[in-house]
Amino acid sequence: MSIEITISGLPRQQPKCVSRRQFGDGHLTAVWLKKKLRLALAMTAARSGTWQIHLIGDAAMTAMHRRTMGINTTTDVLTFDLRNKRTEPRVLELETLICLHEARRQARRMHHPVAWEVLLYAIHSLLHVQGYDDRTTRQARRIHRREDQILLALGIGPVYAAGGETGSQDNKPA
Q1: What is the pLDDT of residue 12?
Q2: Based on C-alpha coordinates, what's the Rg of the chain?
Q3: Pairing of strands 2-8, 91-99
Q4: I need a labelling partner for 98 at 20 to 30 A (CA). Which of 61, 78, 85, 122 fits?
Q5: 40 backbone dihedrals φ, ψ, rounded to 5°
Q6: What is the domain partition of the chain in residue ranges?
Q7: pTM, whole model, 2 decimals?
Q8: What is the pLDDT of residues 77-121, one digit of tens each?
Q9: Beta bridge partners of 8
Q10: CA 85 from chain center: how many Å?
Q11: Quick one: CA torsion of 159, 163, 169, 172, rounded to 10 degrees?
Q12: Which top CATH class is 2-153?
């Protein structure tokens, strides 16, 4: 599998002189996120291509949400499938925008690390281009069940469901 993942808006690694508490987002680094996403990709049909992930704030997300969907609010994640209709389904050409401010709010509300919330949003985006949707209640249950399966396999556990039990508390930097 050769999928190039690029991540902007995160430090590559946690600064050595700063504690996790001071850093604020624990182990949320580009290295940690890439490691988890490579494992998640192995659980999908994608085998080659590119995936660009941009972590942005509320203002940028609101502007993009307004421009692309006509909705003048922030949102958690926006997915852009850049493949044309003739592209092989196993090829990934994906751009994902993740709102770090929203991830922080939801992580605080759900009492889990911001890194888990960001990982959930990235997996959610990946599943959208793999044929999953969440426009109906039935579709939403299906995509969230698949997210949970992947997160469990990654040693984290369900993140989306309120009150869902978490897995191994994989908080160590990679």
Answers
A1: 74
A2: 16
A3: unpaired
A4: 85
A5: -65, -40
A6: 2-153
A7: 0.85
A8: 999 999 988 778 899 999 999 999 999 999 999 999 999 999 999
A9: 54
A10: 24
A11: 50
A12: alpha beta
